[in-house]
Amino acid sequence: MREKLAKKLDWARPLRYANGMAVLGSKSGKTARSERTDPTVLATGIRAGERAALARGITLVESSRADHQEAAQELLAQVLDLSGRAVRIGLSGAPGVGKSTFTEAFGRYLIDQGFKVAVLAVDPSSARTGGSILGDKTRMEFLARDPSAFIRPSPSGGTLGGVARRTREAMLLTEAAGYDVVIIETVGVGQSETAVADMVDMFLLLLSPGGGDELQGIKRGIMELADLVVVNKADGDLKPAARRAAAEYGAALHLMRPKSPNWTPAVALASALKSEGLEEIWTSIQEFREKMSASGELEGRRAEQAKTWMWTELREGLLSQLHTHAEASRLVGELENEVAAGGITPTAAANRLLALLFPDRQA
What we know:
This protein is α/β, with parallel strands linked by helices. It contains 14 helices and 9 strands.
């Protein structure tokens, strides 16, 4: 199937070299540098499942350059018809709970079942350089080498919600490239680390045993978002503690109102280190998908997520416009100083900036 698709899209063309740079064997003779940002070339490669094209496409959508963003939107428009077919799974948990170990074990299990797996791992960003601190790809070395897997670590860039700003676009591109399961591994658990629930089908919360008072170790808000709670490290001396923790979390979930009338969140035990409990987790995910699809709630949830995405982009776009507008950019500094000195209220300062951007706006 994939070979026929590649032949149909004429992607399987040999590379030739010119001036020391790789050039695709096309009549246009474009250099590799121009090919890297050409939406049509990238779309062709992504539709054929070409990993290098997918990596370049994600780099393009993550770029903040205006010309790159314009090309990125053209790219997304060309592959949008192939997106939306994958199982979208969000994975979150406190630092040290074993998210990367679990993701690698679960990803390898899915590949053994015949699926292609993409992992979008969002790392904390360095406050100094903006780059990733943890480097998830290096911590999933076996999965990273598997031809049926694609791992893309991205710095969060300070974005709230535990995900990078362009994680949604990256997810669409991986789906268009033919990946059956997309796992979004987030930075961790916190009051703002819930945005992943607005872009996936199922949200998995990974927890560890032996942390003392288990119910005090996690925020109620994140528990209410979970579709499945997985107690990891249920092996060796920690197995009894894991069972006790699972029972406590199960009791806590029963006291919370389910976010869906078609699914009751459950608790599962797993050992990522020994690859135990993975089959049961995948069975729960399949059951979840079946129930949500049959009721129409999955389609409705994705539609709501798309609207949330639109408003998120609108807010980000307005902030970007504020910083690129010459007069507004100058006024921002003055107003910040006035607000800090108590000479003007923050609301009044914000209204002045809005009036500058939108002269016809009525306060």
